[in-house]
Amino acid sequence: MPPPLTVTSSSPSPWIRRYRPASEGRTPLVCLPPAGASASFFAALSRDAPAAVDPWAIALPGREARLGEPAMTTMAVLADAVAGELVDRLDGPAVLLGHSMGGSVAHEVARRLEARAAGSVLHLVVGGRGGPATQRALRPDGVPDDAALVYGLAAAGDTPRELLEDPDVLDLLLPPLRADYALLAAYVPDDAPRLTAGITAVVGRDDPTTTEAGVATWAAATDGPFDARTAPGGHLFLAERTDEVVAAIAAAVAGAADRA
Questions:
Q1: CATH 3.40.50.2300 correct for 16-259
Q2: Which residues of 184-217 are buried (b: 16+ CB within 10 A; e: fewer)?
Q3: Over pLDDT 70: what percentage of the chain?
Q4: Which residues are CB-contacts of 28 (< 8 A; sequence separation ≥ 6)?
Q5: Is the dihedral of CA 191, 35, 159, 20 positive or negative?
């Protein structure tokens, strides 16, 4: 088995946030957030993640600490940037985790890492996102207007209504969400290349946007092992309960060790 990833650069990165002390010698868990969100989405997961991993939450431009930077609206540009950052800082295999839109980003980043170095991705964990075939079928037709974006947030049921009625909150929520919808509207995933790394796909039992059949299509995206799981909660189940994803991460790391 390749050695665990370690940080090879001590300089701070605007792309990476840690919500627990850095743990050198452990396998980094690189986390990509859902549409409109950023690194803090993974604060709870970082706290609860298995001791074998070192969670790295990816901070996207145009939100939180990077609010003054332009958001990226093209998948290739975003995936290239994240992959380039990881290549510069890591020297071994990583577990990648992406939720909703972040699942697609994590998949594209994993492809780029594997293209640069075989064995560079230990496992991909995707939450609340159907596989590439499902994404093509459900690709958004352009960017919704603000009213439609707010309606979508309300329908998903994961954002408190009082926040959606606060103009100041919407001024922060909507710009990155618009940018991410533009990215998704322009993104047409393909079926090749398949990953060598295994994939685990997790769906919320009450998710109105993603189905068990949809996440099962991730099996076609890998030549490695595949596992599909169901977690309690809705689309953003990971914001409320981390246990199923934590179990998936632990199983992925243990499975890689068993196969070594």
A1: no
A2: beebebeeeeebebbbbbbbbeebebbeeebbbb
A3: 90
A4: 5, 53, 54, 55, 56, 90, 94, 95
A5: positive
- Helix, strand or coil for residue 19? coil
Residue with tokens 């099996």: 219
Quickly list H helices, the chain: 43-48, 75-89, 101-116, 132-137, 146-156, 161-164, 167-186, 212-216, 243-259
Crossing angle (nearest 10°) for helices 101-116 and 167-186: 50
CB 97 within 8 A of CB 103: no
Place of tokens 């980094």: 28
Active site residues: 100, 235
Q: Do the beta carbons of residue 45 and residue 55 sit within 8 Å?
A: yes
Reported as a single tens digit per residue, the pLDDT across 116-157 is 999 999 999 999 999 998 877 666 666 788 888 887 777 766
State the average pLDDT over residues 161-180.
87
